[in-house]
UniProtKB/TrEMBL annotation:
Organism of provenance: Sphingobacterium alimentarium
Recorded GO CC terms: cytoplasm
Record InterPro entries: Creatin/AminoP/Spt16_N (IPR029149), Creatinase/aminopeptidase-like (IPR036005), Creatinase_N (IPR000587), Pept_M24 (IPR000994), Pept_M24B (IPR033740), Peptidase_M24_C (IPR032416), X-Pro_aminopeptidase_P (IPR050422)
One matching Pfam family: Creatinase_N_2
Residue ranges of every copy of the Creatinase N-terminal domain listed in the record: 6-126
Source organism phylogeny: Bacteria, Pseudomonadati, Bacteroidota, Sphingobacteriia, Sphingobacteriales
Domain Peptidase M24 residues, every copy: 309-523
Protein name per UniProt: Xaa-Pro aminopeptidase
Length: 591
């Protein structure tokens, strides 16, 4: 069935049920960013494979609302599908709700599947449309009836992590969550988000590509903790271990029925990370307290055991990256290389490292103008062959049992223009500015975002994505609640938080540049003006100096770059062969 035929069938179902507009979010019952195959609804309906977007279908229009990371990709993938790209002005905003209010007549009916929409999205749509006398129904699934070969839920086994890896027991994590519930005057808590469940119970799985999580829900009350997970995914030993920690096991499918019959005075739900169907199933007699999941804030602050593991993991990942870039330089011009083949090769180098489990996201290997697509993913149709010219952007990461990595580097393949050098240098300057920032305790992510962008703004350059995101410990590569972007997110940077710093610059049709390291927030010093913090750079991989225009850097930036590259050599050279260490010594020479 073509995408046009699927759109036709959806519209027919809408007419038969009296629906004037149908909304399809990019999500699942756990409000995940990366989805199991069963819930890749937007891709199945429209062909768009990006990780962020919303489809809205009426009888005379079908649109995909997405942000600037995906504009070029969406235009290409939506061609001939019956869907049009609608460019979001603000990343993550539900601007389609306002469009529906302007487009639909009074008395119209809008519907969506409450299993796929967060409570926050549902509330936003209702707030925009109900005052206009437009009906909103969050209990309509139009896809299951026409998606005949829909994939089943994954059946891969889950496993528990030892406290020597996590640095904190399940019992102490449950106690910490319960303490926050008591302060919020909530008797109970229902957790849908998979990384929160994984952190709380020290459980991992392989149900979602690139994210070591398992499809599950958790209910926590003062005396009780219940894990809802598909039968058979945990071994008898793991079940026994969880029982000993005060965690009961129930079947995954029983979660919604349990919520419908819940017997508690109050329950805490995270509106961003709980689907509307769960919220709407809770009895009206139960007070719902809408707050961020306590575990989200707790897991953002890494403990000393996790930090030690991550530092070790960064060495392993740096070895893999060094081997990859040495291989790339020597193979270029000697054998045919493509965006897809080098991504596979990089995954192979990581797989050689102890404790490697999977990549942490699909590698972005963007050559020439493909580098200007921030979330580009090569396909057989788009796959460029590499030549001895132009820029190559590689954004990649690994999932290890001792940490998660995310790194972006840009290298020259030859014949670089002055514009490319200048752009590269300004992005590097931004990375350095953010990395060496010293800031008062209590500062927020948008302040670090501005510090990082400052040198680029001074030359009238900018980029459309955020400067950084939190990262999990052998968990999701994108983790909240903290974020470095221009929005006024009221979350302070705290000691122990790990965040990316990744400014970029993208010239559509020409080239893209992004230089990304992970940093750890640590205490810096005290003064009469208060406590200050700074960042420890964690990522260990050389930054290419062949592309640097020194005239655009101040001495403080040159010193940072030289010191960083020397540190990279010192950390990695003992783990490399003589030939590899010699190659890296040349790459890390001071400029």
């Amino acid at each position: 069935m073509s995408h046009l035929e699927r759109l036709t069938q959806i519209r027919a179902a809408m007419r038969s049920q009296g629906i004037d507009a149908y909304i399809i979010p990019s999500s699942d019952p756990h409000i995940s960013e990366y989805l199991p195959e069963r819930y890749k609804c937007i891709e199945w309906v429209s062909g768009f494979t990006g990780s962020a977007g919303t489809l809205v279908i009426t009888q005379d229009f079908a649109g995909l609302w997405t942000d600037g990371r995906y504009f070029v990709q969406a235009n290409e993938q939506l061609a001939g599908t019956g869907f049009e790209l609608v460019k979001l002005k603000i990343q993550g905003a539900a601007e389609y709700a306002d469009w529906l209010g302007e487009t639909l007549s009074e008395g119209a009916r809008v519907a969506f599947d409450g299993n796929l929409a967060s409570l926050l999205v549902a509330q936003t749509v209702k707030c925009a449309l109900l005052p206009l006398n437009i009906q909103v129904d969050g209990h309509v699934d139009l896809l299951s009836a026409i998606w005949n070969d829909r994939p089943p839920l994954p059946q891969v086994d889950a496993f528990l992590l030892d406290e020597s890896t996590t640095g904190q027991s399940t019992e102490s994590k449950l106690a910490a969550v319960r303490a926050i519930l008591a302060k919020s005057r909530a008797e109970s808590h229902f957790i849908s988000s998979l990384d929160d469940v994984a952190w709380l119970l020290n459980i991992r799985g392989q149900d979602v590509p690139c994210n070591p999580v398992v499809l599950s829900f958790v209910y926590v009350s003062t005396e009780q903790a219940i894990l809802f997970i598909k039968e058979g995914k945990l071994s008898a030993e793991a079940v026994s271990q969880l029982n000993a920690k005060g965690v009961e096991i129930a079947d995954y499918e029983d979660a919604f029925n349990y919520v419908k019959n819940i017997n508690t005075k109050s329950i805490l739900l995270d509106p961003k990370r709980t689907c509307f169907a769960v919220y709407d199933s809770i009895p009206k007699s139960v007070q719902i307290i809408e707050k961020i999941n306590p575990s989200t804030s707790l897991k953002a602050i890494k403990n000393e055991v996790e930090i030690a593991h991550i530092r070790h993991t960064m060495v392993q990942d740096g070895v893999a990256m060094t081997k990859f870039f040495k291989w790339l330089e020597e193979a270029l011009g000697q054998e045919e290389l493509s965006e897809m083949s080098i991504a596979d090769k990089l995954a192979g180098f990581r797989a050689e490292q102890p404790g490697f489990v999977d990549v942490s996201f699909n590698t972005i290997a963007g050559y020439l103008d493909h580098g200007a697509l921030p979330h580009y993913h090569a396909t057989p149709q788009s796959n460029y062959t590499l030549k001895q010219e132009g820029l190559l952007l590689v954004d990649s990461g690994g999932q290890y049992k001792t940490g998660t990595t995310d790194i972006t580097r840009v290298v020259s393949l030859g014949n670089i223009t002055q514009e490319e050098k200048d752009d590269y240098t300004m992005v590097l300057k931004g990375t350095i500015e953010g990395s060496q920032a010293i800031f008062p305790m209590g500062s927020k992510g948008y302040q670090i975002d501005a510090i990082t962008r400052r040198p680029m703004w001074a030359t009238l350059r900018n980029y459309g994505h955020g400067t950084g995101h939190g990262i999990g410990f052998f968990l999701n590569v994108h983790e909240g609640p903290h974020v470095f972007n221009p929005t006024n997110v009221d979350v302070a940077i705290e000691e122990g938080m790990i965040t990316s710093i990744e400014p970029g610059l993208y010239r559509e049709g020409k080239h893209g540049i992004r230089i990304e390291n992970l940093v750890l927030a640590t205490k810096y010093d005290n003064s009469i003006f208060g406590d200050f913090m700074h960042f420890e750079t964690l990522t260990i991989c050389y930054i290419d100096t062949d592309l640097v225009n020194k005239e655009l850097l101040d001495q403080v930036h040159i010193d940072w770059l030289n010191n960083y590259n020397q540190w990279v050599f010192d950390q990695l050279s003992p783990k490399l062969s003589t030939a590899e260490a010699s190659w890296l010594a040349n790459k890390t020479k001071a400029i």
